[in-house]
Amino acid sequence: MTWSTREIAELAGTSLRAVRHYHEVGLLTEPARRANGYKQYGVEHLVRLLRIKRLADLGFSLPQIADTLDDRDHPEQALRTLDAELAATVDRLQRARVELAAILERRAPADLPVELAPAQASSLTDADRSLVLLMTRVMGPRKLAAYGALLRDMPADPTDGEFDALHADAGEDVRRDLAERMLPHVRRVTDAHPELRGPDDDAPRGARVLAETTNAAMHELYNPAQVDVLVRVAALLRTEH
């Protein structure tokens, strides 16, 4: 009894592409060909293919399958290794499901960690979201927690929208006036979250990298007038302390 490539793939419950790939990587030997040039697979090939598929369905990688198929001993270590890998995958997927549920419930942006998503996703501009995402890589856990608390409970800003709409060539008077009117709001926010003013001694890549990354992000994500306003607000805050 012999089968064509398509027939043996169907019998084994796999695809033509998979059978061809198994030939390419050396897991399945090439069968003899009929006079017309078509491959003819026998029982030995089908049994081998079924074993390959069985191990693949369990989660074995192709190199692991190659090591296991021709080893007559019970593959205990390979099975234990695979079990540990699958347990880690299950754990990761369970955490992902918990986070997806939170994202759906809060209608939070999918590209931000849930703990850093604001109560109103629309309150963040693209620049703001990009900055938050960058901070997750360089900011320490203490400040990230405070940052998340701030974003989830951001008080209303009397100048809401003015900063985002500020034109790059806005004049000196406009920038100074906006900075002065933003100051009370920024002061309230920083007073409510004093951890944001603390040292950066827990930053994963160090305080210097955090400062350099934040500075670079500010100058690339916001226009020169907006950066100038932020610098002015920071300077005004420093004069109060």
TrEMBL record:
Does this entry carry the keyword DNA-binding?
A: yes
Q: Which InterPro entries match?
A: DNA-bd_dom_put_sf (IPR009061), MerR-type_HTH_dom (IPR000551), MerR_fam (IPR047057)
Q: What CDD domains does the annotation carry?
A: HTH_MerR-like
Cite the SMART domains for this sequence. Answer: HTH_MERR (SM00422)
Per UniProt, the keywords (alphabetical) are: DNA-binding
* UniProt cross-references to SUPFAM superfamilies, sorted A to Z: Putative DNA-binding domain (SSF46955)
| PROSITE patterns to which the protein is assigned, alphabetical | HTH_MERR_2
| Protein name (Swiss-Prot/TrEMBL) | MerR family transcriptional regulator
